[in-house]
Amino acid sequence: MTARRLAILLITVCAPGCASFRTGRPAPLDRWPPPSIARPQSIALLITAQSTLNGNPGEVGPVFDHWREQTVRAYRESKLFSHVTVGLGDADLRAEVNLLAADEMSELAMLLMVSTIGLFPSVTTTRFTLHTHFKDRAGHDLGTFESHEVIRTWTELLLLPIMPLRSQRSAMSQTIYDLNRAVLTNFERSDAARARRGESSRADS
Amino acid sequence: MHGAMRTRTMPLWIGLSVPFVFSLSGCAARQKVTYGLGDVRTLTGGTLSQYRLLVRRFEDQRDPEAISRRGSWSEAAKTADGNYYVNSDNQYVDGPVAAAVTRMIGEHVKASGLFHDVLVSESEPVQGDLVLNGAIKRFEAHRETHEVQEALLVQGGLLWLILGTASWRAQYDATTQLADVKLTDSSSSLALWQGTAEGHVAGQDMVQSGGWSVYQEANLSLKNAVDKLLEQLATVKPSPFAPPVVAKPQE
C-alpha cells in the first residue's frame, strides 16, 4: 500500500506540466480605482483580439469571452464611467479596445519536449499588446493608449504540482485586467479626459 | 497452422490500419468552410439591431480555373506549374463553395449581434427585413510545395523530423474577395450600403506533406473578410422607410 502511494506521489511530482510566469509587468498603479469623478459618463466598448503564433495569424478562440470579461471588469471597477456596455449601444464615450497576443515558441524545442515527455523544457513567450482608442459621442479623438506585458509558459517535468497555482488562464486573465487598468489610469490623467470633465490640466501641473 | 493463420489475418490488419493511418494524416477529402466564432467582435446595440437580415446566396464569380481544380485523396490540388498547393472545390463536403461561404457569412454576422436575427435564405423578405447579397470573386489559399522535403518527412525518421521542424519552411497566403456586396431595405428596395470586403492572411510555417492546411488558411481569410464587411456594415444608418421588426425597448 505504501509503495503504491509512493509510486503515485512520484508520478505526480515527476509528471510533465506547465506553468506561466508574468514578466515585464506595467508600472504599478498609484491608486486603483482612480479618484472618483463628479460627473461620470457612460462608455461603450468595442473589443477585438488577434492572435499570432511565430508571426503567423491564428484564431483566438473561445478564451476571448474570458478576455472580454476581464476588460469589462476593469472598466466597471474603475468607477470612471456611469455605465459600461459592450457593442455599438448609445453612450457618451466609445473605446475601441484591441488586444494582440503574439506567441513565440521554438517548434524544435516543443518537438524535443514532447518526444522526451518533458525532459527537455519548452517555453512559449506570449507578448500582450493592448491598444485602446477613446472617442467621444461625435467620434472626436480623445487619445490612444497602449500597454504591454509578457507571459512565459514553461512546459517540462516536475511542473505538474504547481500547475494549479501558475495556470496560463489565470496569468492571462490577470494580465489583461492589469493592462486595461494601466490604460484607464493613463486615460484618466490625460488632458482630453480632464478637459471633458471641465478640469484645467495646467492648474494640476 | 500458425503460418495459415498469419496469412488469413494479415489482410485484416492491413485493412484496419490503412484507413486509420489515412484518417490520422487528414488525407480524406473532408474539408469544410468553417471557422471558430468564439472571438467575433460584439456589435450589439447599434442602429441595425432592430432589423432582421436575410442573406442571399453570394454569386460565385471566381476564376473558372479556380473552380475546376481537382485535388486527390492524398494531397490538396496543385497549381498548373506544381509550385503551390491550392484549395479545390471537390474536397469540400459541405456543398457548393458559394453556398458554404454564404452560410458561414450568415453565421459570422449573426454571432456579431449587429442584427436582431440573421437568416440565410432565398425566401421572400417581409416588411422591415434587410437583404444582403454579393459575389465571391476569390476564395483561395496558396502554399509552397517542397517535394523532396515532403517526401523525406513522409518517409519518417527522427533526423528528418528534427530538420523539418528546425529549418524547412513553406510560405502561404490566402485571400477572400467579396465584391458588389449590397445591403438593401426590402420595403423600399433602397440600397443602404454597397461595397467590397477583402480578407488576407500570409505567413510561413513548417513544410507539410499534402498541403492540407490551405483549407484552414482559406477559411481564415474568409473570417478576415467578413470582419471587414461587418466593420463597414456597423456604420450603416437604417432607411427611414424601413420599419424595425422589433419594437425599440423603452428607455
Please write out the topology.
The complex is a heterodimer of chains A (205) and B (251).
Chain A (H helix, E strand, L loop, with lengths): L1 H13 L2 E7 L17 E13 L2 E3 L4 H16 L2 E6 L6 E13 L1 H9 L6 E15 L4 E16 L11 H22 L1 H6 L4 H4 L1
Parallel strand pairs in A: 2-4, 2-5
Antiparallel strand pairs in A: 1-7, 2-3, 5-6, 6-7
Helix pairs in contact in A: 2-4
Chain B lengths: L1 H24 L26 E4 L3 E2 L3 H5 L8 E2 L5 E3 L10 H16 L4 E4 L9 E15 L2 H9 L2 H10 L1 E17 L4 E17 L7 H20 L18
Parallel strand pairs in B: 1-5, 1-6, 2-6
Antiparallel strand pairs in B: 3-4, 4-6, 6-7, 7-8
Helix pairs in contact in B: 3-6
Notes on the protein architecture:
The complex is a heterodimer of chains A (about 200) and B (about 250). By secondary structure, chain A is α/β, with parallel strands linked by helices. In chain A, about 35% of the residues lie in helices and about 35% in strands. Chain A contains six helices and seven strands. Chain A has helices at about 1-15, 65-80, 105-115, 170-190, 190-195, 200-205, and strands spanning about 15-25, 40-55, 55-60, 80-85, 95-105, 120-135, 140-155. In chain A, strands 1, 2, 3, 4, 5, 6 and 7 form a seven-stranded mixed beta sheet that branches. In chain A, α2 (about 65-80) runs parallel beside α4 (about 170-190). The termini of chain A are far apart. Residues about 200-205 of chain A have low confidence and may be disordered. Chain B is an alpha/beta fold. Chain B is built from six helices and eight strands, in the order αββαββαββααββα. In chain B, strands 1, 2, 3, 4, 5, 6, 7 and 8 form an eight-stranded mixed beta sheet that branches. In chain B, β7 (about 170-185) and β8 form a beta hairpin. The termini of chain B are far apart. The interface of A and B includes residues 48, 60 and 111 of A.
